[in-house]
Amino acid sequence: MNDGKTIICSPHKLYGPRINDLSFQLRKQRVDQIVLTGMLANMCMESHLREFLEQGFEVAVVRDAIAAPKIPDGDGYLSALINFRHIANGL
Question: Which candidate, 64, 50, 42, 43, places its Cα nearest to that of 17?
Fold first, then answer.
């Protein structure tokens, strides 16, 4: 049961907001708030986040439901969290 919430799975490579009419479909259902979760936080998720914000959605990110690589030269998860704190409506 989803208590009247709209749940959409959007694989970035196929259904990113720039590639299709996802934002239009959400607006048709009167959705204006998005809770974003997923993998590759510092790349795909950040792209989704920025696109949805530019289109006027209120977007929150669930920090315990995202992932990103950590390599010797940097921590993708930490860098994503830093960016999300500055641009998302909630983290």
Answer: 50
